[in-house]
Task: inverse folding
């Protein structure tokens, strides 16, 4: 027993000395150490837990979950016992005085209880503030210190054990709840001073050596467990540790903390809390068994410190979100902690209530339909951002680029000649346009009688209607145009259209008959305008000299002769006449 | 005495059997115009306004010839009384000739041309309608002058337009307006002139005229 106890204590101590970062990685030796420590702690608490069926913590071949459940088995009834005891002490403060506790230690305990309590509550606060579970902690050092501080509340070996356990716990808790930010500054506040923590830890370590072994052993084992778990960074082990501690604490604290309030501990009533601690201490002293008292007291103290923490850890481990005030309130009320499901239900219920309330109430004026000025508070429109449909297009801002773009477009259009002129829509073809009678504003040349006569004649005999002036002009114009077209066709078209047959038109062209019928185009054809015989203005059968026969030659000569003779005669006659005139003339001249 | 006897049968005076032969139904020749007025000669007298005196003197033969030759009405000018007198002859073919001639002369006196007025002689149903501007609308001074100007138009073209469109002849004599034509045509011309008097612009009157005359032309 002593050996095992010693081994357990040793293990616990070793765990305490472990470098926190090394706990980050799974370490089989550390786990072994932790298991040994847990066993030690278990066995040290064993005497106080009568209802527990287990005599010792079985760690060989069991996994973390199972070890944890064993611890749980022991600590649950223990915690309820402790609670009862604390309640008793609360009701009968005199009993505390009967508890045998060394005064110095009691004082220390008082002071340190208060400190530790505050520190723990700070821890607890900070832990509560953060919800992350999976961050590795590098606050192991601080936690250790804290734990050491909290452990220091216990006078006995339990202190150390608890200290280490709380260290482990805190380490575990840290491991669970990633406080990952710079926690030095975060943790320290008016309650927690790291330096004071360190001093206290030193003191408690010294106390630890004086503590009773039984308690230490138990607690060591527990703490070993915790350390082991810390080393392995298993949530389950942490749970075991936490629950272990928590159970212990719960048992004790149940009794003492039913009527505790936040104010008792934090707000200017430090004496009260310390008093309470005194009471607890006294009560523990009053109890018959000093060890028991002490342990009870220590456990009470632990309870004060660890219940919150353990609860938190448990909750965190189970990854339940909770609100600090709710938790604290429920904890302070000494209610049994609601399960996660219940908590969820509560939350949903509250939400539902809110929503129902909102639905039942009359809506705000802005959510109602048409609201006149009478139905809403004065000047309330100013507060509300209303969205109007503006049917007015916002006026365009005339900038340089705007005008430049417009001008560019205009220039481009002018260059292209692409204008958006409005085209007149083509009218559908209505009935044939009636002949509009033009009003003649000249003095009519016909007399009235003639007009009526014409009208009468038209009535009687429509066909003999004389051409109106309009028709005459029309006819003249159409004639001119047809003439022109004919000429143009002859000049340009390859397909010749024969002249139109117009009766009163004397249209004579020097176009030979052949051309009229020829298929080839006039421009291409090389047929002369007139045929040779048309050009020829001779007579009879024309023959060449060679072709002439004798008789014909003779005839020709004879004709020629005859002609010549006739001409000669004429010439001579002429001459004679002209001579006679001269003769006549001369005597005239002679005379005159 | 015969009545005393209650005789069932009436006493009948027997007429002598020889029946008087009724005279045959008289067959009268139609009355000559001359005889219609109980053989009295009928006169018409048309006074000549001073402004028509000279034109009458110039145109006299053109007036005289158709009246005397074709109408067979005696016509003479009473210089002293400044009247044209018309008298039926025994061989005047128609009783209405005298009136026609009188109308013809009267039309000339109003201001119509002979060639226009001759139509009265030739056609039966030509009439002359006269009215004054003040019958249509009371106008004074400048308004009156402007109305007269509107009626005539520039160079008389409005008047001619109406004449040509409605087959009438119009004479605007200061404030008096005379229209010569058939009854329907007179109406159309009169309406157009009234619009002009009342102030319509010529264009509007033209469009109305156009519509009316085209409709009238289509009818036939």
Result:
């Amino acid at each position: 027993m002593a050996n095992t106890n010693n081994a357990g204590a040793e293990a616990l101590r070793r765990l305490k000395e472990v470098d926190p970062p090394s706990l980050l990685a799974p370490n089989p030796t550390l786990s072994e150490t932790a298991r040994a420590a847990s066993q030690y702690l278990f066995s040290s608490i064993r005497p106080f837990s009568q209802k527990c069926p287990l005599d010792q913590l079985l760690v060989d071949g069991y996994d973390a979950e199972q070890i944890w459940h064993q611890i749980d088995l022991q600590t649950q009834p223990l915690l309820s016992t402790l609670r009862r005891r604390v309640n008793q002490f609360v009701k009968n403060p005199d009993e505390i005085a009967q508890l045998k506790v060394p005064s110095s230690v009691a004082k220390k305990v008082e002071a340190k209880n208060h400190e530790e309590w505050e520190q723990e509550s700070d821890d607890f606060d900070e832990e509560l503030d953060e919800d992350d579970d999976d961050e590795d902690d590098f606050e192991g050092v601080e936690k250790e210190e804290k734990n050491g501080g909290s452990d220091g509340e216990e006078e006995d070996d339990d202190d150390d054990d608890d200290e280490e356990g709380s260290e482990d716990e805190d380490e575990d808790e840290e491991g669970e709840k990633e406080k990952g930010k710079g926690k030095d500054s975060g943790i320290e506040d008016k309650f927690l001073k790291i330096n004071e923590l360190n001093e206290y830890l030193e003191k408690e370590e010294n106390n630890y050596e004086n503590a009773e072994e039984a308690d230490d052993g138990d607690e060591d084992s527990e703490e070993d467990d915790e350390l082991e778990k810390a080393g392995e960074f298993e949530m389950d082990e942490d749970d075991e540790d936490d629950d272990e501690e928590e159970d212990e604490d719960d048992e004790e604290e149940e009794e003492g903390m039913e009527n505790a309030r936040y104010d008792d501990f934090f707000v200017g009533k430090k004496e009260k809390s310390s008093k309470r601690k005194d009471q607890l201490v006294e009560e523990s002293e009053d109890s018959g068994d000093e060890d028991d008292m002490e342990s009870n007291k220590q456990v009470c103290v632990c309870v004060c410190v660890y219940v919150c923490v353990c609860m938190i850890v448990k909750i965190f481990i189970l990854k339940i979100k909770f609100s600090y005030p709710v938790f604290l309130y429920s904890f302070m009320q000494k209610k049994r902690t609601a399960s996660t499901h219940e908590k969820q239900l509560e939350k949903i219920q509250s939400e539902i209530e809110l929503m129902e309330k909102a639905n039942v109430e009359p809506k705000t004026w802005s959510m109602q339909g048409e609201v006149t000025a009478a139905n809403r508070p004065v000047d309330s429109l100013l507060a509300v951002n209303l969205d109007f449909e503006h049917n007015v297009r916002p006026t365009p801002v005339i900038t340089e680029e705007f005008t430049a773009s417009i001008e560019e477009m205009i220039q481009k259009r002018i260059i292209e000649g692409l204008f958006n002129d409005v085209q007149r829509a083509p009218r559908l073809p209505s009935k044939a346009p009636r002949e509009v009678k033009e009003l003649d504003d000249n003095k009519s040349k016909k007399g009235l009688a003639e007009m009526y006569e014409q009208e009468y004649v038209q009535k009687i005999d429509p066909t003999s209607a004389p051409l109106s002036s309009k028709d005459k002009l029309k006819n003249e114009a159409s004639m001119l145009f047809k003439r022109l077209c004919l000429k143009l066709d002859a000049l340009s078209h390859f397909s010749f259209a024969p002249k139109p047959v117009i009766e009163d038109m004397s249209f004579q062209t020097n176009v030979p008959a052949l051309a009229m019928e020829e298929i080839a185009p006039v421009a291409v054809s090389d047929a002369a305008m007139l045929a040779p015989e048309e050009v020829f203005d001779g007579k009879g059968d024309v023959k060449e000299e060679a072709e002439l026969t004798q008789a014909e030659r003779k005839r020709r000569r004879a004709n020629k002769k005859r002609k010549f003779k006739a001409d000669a005669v004429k010439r001579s006659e002429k001459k004679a006449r002209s001579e006679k005139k001269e003769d006549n003339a001369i005597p005239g001249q002679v005379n005159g | 005495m015969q009545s005393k006897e209650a005789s069932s049968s009436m006493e009948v005076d027997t007429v002598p059997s020889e029946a008087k032969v009724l005279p045959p139904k008289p067959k009268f020749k139609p009355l000559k115009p001359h005889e219609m007025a109980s053989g009295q000669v009928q006169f018409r007298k048309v006074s000549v306004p001073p402004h028509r005196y000279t034109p009458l003197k110039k145109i006299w033969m053109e007036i005289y010839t158709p009246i005397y030759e074709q109408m067979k009405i005696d016509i003479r000018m009473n210089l002293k009384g400044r009247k044209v007198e018309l008298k039926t002859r025994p061989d005047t073919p128609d009783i209405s000739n005298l009136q026609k001639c009188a109308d013809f002369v009267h039309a000339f006196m109003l201001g119509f041309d002979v060639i226009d007025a001759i139509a009265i002689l030739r056609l039966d149903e030509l009439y002359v309608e006269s009215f004054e501007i003040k019958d249509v609308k009371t106008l004074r001074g400048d308004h009156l002058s402007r109305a007269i100007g509107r009626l005539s138009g520039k160079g008389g073209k409005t008047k001619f337009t109406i004449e040509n469109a409605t087959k009438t002849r119009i004479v605007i004599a200061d404030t008096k307006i005379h229209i010569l034509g058939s009854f329907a045509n007179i109406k159309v011309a009169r309406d157009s002139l009234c619009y002009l008097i009342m102030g319509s612009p010529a264009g509007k009157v033209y469009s109305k005229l156009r519509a009316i005359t085209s409709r009238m032309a289509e009818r036939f």
User: Anything to note?
Assistant: Confidence is low (pLDDT under 50) at residues 128-183, 219-223, 225-247, 283-290 of chain A. The two ends of chain A are 211 Å apart (CA to CA). Chain A touches chain B at residues 434, 436-437, 439-444, 447-453, 455, 458-459 (CB under 8 Å). The CA atoms of residues 490 and 496 of chain A lie 6 Å apart.
